[in-house]
Design a protein that fits this description.
heterotrimer; A: 277 residues; Rossmann fold; 2 domains; 3-stranded antiparallel sheet; 33% helix; C: 273 residues; mainly alpha; MetI-like fold; 11 helices; 74% helix; flat
Chain lengths: 277, 278, 273
């Protein structure tokens, strides 16, 4: 899917009206089938960029064009159909804790399933071999029938990525896919994503904190800082000086571990369970 | 990646057999339940039954709003609230000592290891007494008391006092034991008396929760006292029973509306108070 | 010179302060309690006198020995099964109906259009405001004497209670999985089935089972207005002053309530394993 951002600004949905926008005056063109990595220190607006591209956030200024059309000008039904064509993987894997991995992975195919097929799949998973293949690429095939909350954090993250393999999408938007993975697994996961995207001609936009992995696997690197574009270059033209300037005052992120994923919001307080007994 | 050790694909969902079993068992269980409760919903739609229902429901509109009747309803509403309040007061008189007796946070013998046998069994006994008090439905107490003291609000007040005394006693005990026990135990260790440890240690911690629960129970008591009226304990319930027996739909409608409004009002007040208590 | 031991700003506050809302609250509560006792003409003399104690003692003595003849015990057993079935079926129906009503009554994400939310909440509040006994008395007219009226009465009241609890549980469910599916363009009903429901189902089942504990107590006494089960037996025999038989029925009630409490606790523990 082809992407075209023109001078887009957007504010975080929960931010106060007077706060600075998370993304300011961003312009970006991505051809269909391209693969790019977005890097930058925390707070640079990487997640906001992905949400803009996923039509989950309305730009306050500027225009977002997907396949040449403005999604926010479309009637609701067409917008839903468009959403079915893109896949957003949030940083915290969006998996219901007590659901089984097979159902969670197959849920990636929901936009392409009819209502009756999706209901049937709840009772008996409709395409176990496909789920098995998708998980196999991330080395999780043996966890096919496990419950999500019995997996470790890294395994859950890989299940979230495996959903992408089944989604009927032309655009993959992956937010921090490697934050809970060790170096071997990180390499494996990135390779699975990149190969999978290339084989099907899917446009891939991933935000990464591991700059070395980004430089090694992605042909194009976009640097964001404080909501604005710092640079947009092929990977071999990104010099260490540029990186140092991008991560100025955030050197620990350049050198070391990525920041831990935001802790999931504290479980909402249980409703006041008062019965007259 | 893992082509070398691709595990055999389990083509069957392993949880399927278990699910089918449980669902079949549930459906099989449904039949005897329906038979035991003589559950025949089609009876509701038989022409004779429909006619009677239609006539009764039809008589609901318009609800009765004659001045004299409204005055009666107002009096009975106040009586319902009064029975609930008096019952709750007596319940407190019963519950407070019993909950203190059953609360192991005030145990002196437990300060140095296991509780001694005597105090332990005393506390167990009190707990069982509270459980028995709250297990007997208040309607049953009301039936018994109506035989002893006659029709009227006394039976209702006593029924509420006993049942809610058991409920409050048990929950007070749980609330007192669920907080931080260290301040209280320190006081006891330093030689203060049990009542002092209660007043200076347990109460400041738990007062808000105790009061909040009590206010909530008062709201439940209002509902209960309306129900107790059906067995002769006075209040709105008794009037509703009378009107229903005479198939006077208009009066029933008015009283139902007043009751729903009363419950909603009590709910509001109780919610506001509980929020104010933090 | 006579003066307070402490400077004025160090004196403790007066006992009743006209500006302190807690003081007014306490005063209101005391007034309510006093008014309640005064306006009801409670027969204290009749209850607290020695005469009354003696007649109470005599009354209690009539409960023993309880009637344990096989024929009557069989009758009580049938009544127990009827009561248990009433409560189980009524609670189960209410669980299903409550979930069906909780969907229109909840707002699952901030911008969802929920036109039916306010009326459905009103309906649920009305259903739960009316106690089970009142519903049973009303339904007797349509359904006739017998346990069906009791089952329906329990189902109606419990639908209101569970519907409200379910709606709150749905609204408080963690939003992550549902947001991801919605971003993917999946429709509302499927987002509910694949993301929200799997998260809250154990909680919903737990509420339903907890409600069963309450309903068994309610079912036991619904018979007093004619809705079958142990309550009908109880009011019949108490009306005829068969105190021995009444004692048996009361014992059966207590055992039944204890049994359901244990069953409900065990099942709830097994579900949240």
């Amino acid at each position: 899917m082809q992407i075209d951002l023109q001078g887009v600004s957007a504010r975080h949905p929960a931010a106060r009206a007077s706060a600075a926008p998370a993304v300011q005056g961003l312009s970006l063109q991505v051809a269909a089938g391209e693969q790019l990595a977005v890097i930058g220190p925390s707070g640079a607006g990487k997640t906001t960029l992905l949400q803009l591209l996923a039509c989950a956030l309305r730009p306050s200024r500027g225009q977002v064009l997907l396949q040449g059309s403005d999604p926010w000008a479309l009637p609701r039904r067409r917008l839903q159909a468009l959403r079915g064509q893109l896949f957003l993987a949030p940083q915290t894997p969006p998996l219901p804790p007590r659901q089984r991995v097979v159902t969670a992975v197959l849920a990636g195919r929901l936009p392409a399933m009819s209502l009756w097929a999706s209901l049937r799949s709840l009772f008996y998973p409709s395409d176990i071999p496909a789920a098995h293949d998708a998980l196999d690429r991330f080395d999780l095939a043996d966890k096919l029938f496990e419950r999500v909350d019995r997996l470790s954090g890294g395994e859950r993250q890989r299940v979230g990525l495996a959903r992408a393999m089944l989604a009927p999408a032309r655009l993959w938007l992956i937010d921090e896919p490697l934050s809970a993975l060790d170096p071997t697994r990180s390499r494996q996961a990135v390779q699975a994503l990149v190969t999978g995207a290339r084989d099907q001609g899917i446009t891939l936009v991933a935000t990464l904190h591991q700059v070395d992995v980004a430089l090694a696997h992605f042909p194009r690197i976009v640097g964001l800082r404080d909501g604005a574009l710092a640079f947009d270059l092929p990977a071999d033209q990104v010099s260490p000086e540029r990186l140092a300037r991008l991560y100025a005052q955030h050197e620990h992120e350049l050198l070391g571990a990525p920041p831990a994923a935001e802790p999931p919001p504290a479980a909402a307080p249980a409703p006041v369970v008062m019965h007259c007994r | 990646m893992s082509t070398l050790r691709a595990p055999p694909i389990a083509a069957r969902d392993p949880a399927w057999a278990g699910r089918v079993l449980w669902w079949s068992a549930a459906l099989v269980l449904l039949w005897p339940l329906a038979v035991a409760t003589e559950f025949r919903p089609w009876v509701l739609f038989e022409p004779e039954s429909l006619r009677v229902t239609a006539r009764f429901v039809g008589s609901f509109f318009p609800p009765a709003i004659q001045g004299e009747f409204l005055a009666l309803v107002a009096r009975e509403t106040w009586r319902t609230v009064a029975i609930a309040t008096a019952g709750m007061t007596l319940a407190l008189v019963l519950a407070v000592p019993l909950s203190l007796l059953s609360c192991s946070a005030l145990s002196v013998s437990a300060l140095a290891g296991d509780m001694a046998r005597g105090p332990f069994w005393l506390r167990q006994l009190v707990r069982w007494l509270l459980v028995v008090l709250r297990s007997v439905p208040e309607l049953v107490w009301a039936l018994v008391f109506v035989r002893v003291v006659g029709l009227g609000p006394t039976a209702g007040v006593l029924a509420i006092a006993l049942t809610y005394g058991g409920m409050l006693g048990k929950v007070y005990g749980e609330i007192l034991e669920s907080g931080e026990l260290q301040p209280t135990q320190t006081l006891l260790r330093n030689g203060s008396g049990r009542v002092q440890a209660l007043a200076y240690g347990l109460l400041p911690q738990n007062a808000a929760e105790l009061m909040s629960y009590t206010v909530y129970r008062w709201e439940c008591a209002i509902r209960s006292s309306a129900v107790l009226g059906f067995v002769g304990a006075g209040g709105l319930g008794q009037q509703m029973d009378n009107s229903m027996k005479m198939f006077n739909g208009a009066e029933v409608a008015t009283m139902l509306l007043v009751f729903i409004a009363l419950v909603a009002l009590a709910d509001r007040i109780s919610g506001w108070l509980r929020r104010a208590l933090g | 010179m006579q003066s307070a031991a402490n400077k004025p700003y160090r004196l403790p506050p007066p006992l009743f302060n006209a500006r302190c809302s807690a003081c007014w609250f306490t005063a209101a509560v005391v007034a309510l309690v006093v008014l309640s006792f005064w306006s009801l003409d409670l027969q204290w003399a009749a209850f607290l006198s020695l005469d009354a104690a003696r007649s109470m003692g005599r009354f209690l003595a009539e409960f023993f020995p309880p009637d344990l003849s096989p024929a009557f015990v069989a009758k009580v057993a049938r009544g127990t099964v009827e009561t248990l079935a009433m409560s189980a079926l009524g609670t189960a129906m209410a669980g299903v109906a409550g979930l069906a009503l909780a969907l229109p009554a909840s707002r699952l994400w901030a911008e969802q259009r929920t036109p039916a939310r306010a009326p459905t909440r009103l309906l649920l509040n009305a259903l739960r405001a009316v106690p089970e006994l009142v519903w049973a008395a009303l339904l007797l007219i349509a359904a006739g004497l017998g346990p069906m009226a009791g089952t329906l009465a329990l189902a109606l009241h419990t639908t209101g209670v569970l519907g409200r609890l379910f709606a709150e549980a749905l609204e408080n469910a963690p939003p992550g999985p549902a947001q991801a599916l919605r971003a993917h363009g999946v429709g509302t009903s499927r987002v509910f089935l694949y993301a929200t429901l799997p998260q809250v189902l154990p909680q919903l089942l737990s509420y339903t089972l907890y409600r069963w504990e309450n309903n068994i107590r309610a079912a036991a006494v619904l018979g007093v207005v004619g809705a079958g089960g142990l309550g009908q037996l109880l009011s019949y025999h108490m009306g005829l002053f068969h105190m021995g038989k009444t004692a048996t029925i009361l014992a059966a009630m207590l055992l039944l309530v204890a049994l359901v409490d244990v069953l409900s606790l065990v099942t709830r523990r097994a579900l949240t394993r």
